[in-house]
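If you are new to this repository, start here. Below is one unmodified record pulled from the training split, so you can see the exact layout before writing a loader.
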Amino acid sequence: MVVEEMIEKNNELRDKLTPENKEYYEKILLYTRFKGLFGDDEVIETVLLNILYDLLDAQESGVLAEDYFGKEPKAYLDELFQEMPQVSLSKKLSIFYMVFGISSGFSLFSTLTQKNPSINSLTILLNGLISMLLVFSVFKYLEKMTFKVKKQSKMIEYIVVFIMGLLLMASYIGSVVIGNHFLSIPIPLYLSISVIVIAMTVVSYLIIKRKNKPYYSYLVFGWGITLFTTINRLPQTQKWFESEPIIIASIVLILLGSFLAAKFSQKTILKEDK
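And here is the target side for that same chain:
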């Protein structure tokens, strides 16, 4: 059974759990997937399915999940992780390569959409490293918080997310400022527009081909940003964006578009998860 089939089977069987058992199991599921970020997906999903089968058997016998695995299943799960086969270093690093690639793409997009477009190697490198550190930190944080009491974790969660957001924003701004002074290669305006359009076309093709529905809204948003930045930089239409009301309206629309894309993506993921 391939990973996708196991996830689908997990989603299907999870609906057979009672509300209490389902809440309990979903904490196990989240903790295992967060902790298994650098593990073998097939092994992780197999473990999750086996635990789910055990819980369903216990439920049929009238035993609650909490009584079957205990109130704190974290220790049991940590033991399971110690028994799992070791994953090769190259496979562990593959997640970093993916994050670095995505971050580099966004960094390149941001430098190419400036009024004086350039390819900024240092900014791309710094943003890639920052993004990898962020992904690792977020997953570690979520792993630690999975079994925390909700009343205690909510306030801490908001504070941590706020601080991480500030640090991330400061890091990205700092990388752009530093990068603009070193290893920056200016390129012609129309070449930068062509690169962006080609890149968006390739990304759109891959997402549609793989039927990644949660990302469809981001495609629409991405093409909207591409159109906006192109109009904003063309000599013939640049003056349209010089007035203050237009600038404010543009910022509001971009923020609104980003929010709607995220909400639509979240709803799609939840629908597919059921």
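Two things worth knowing about this chain: DSSP finds eleven helices and two strands in the chain. The first strand starts at residue 118 and ends at 120.
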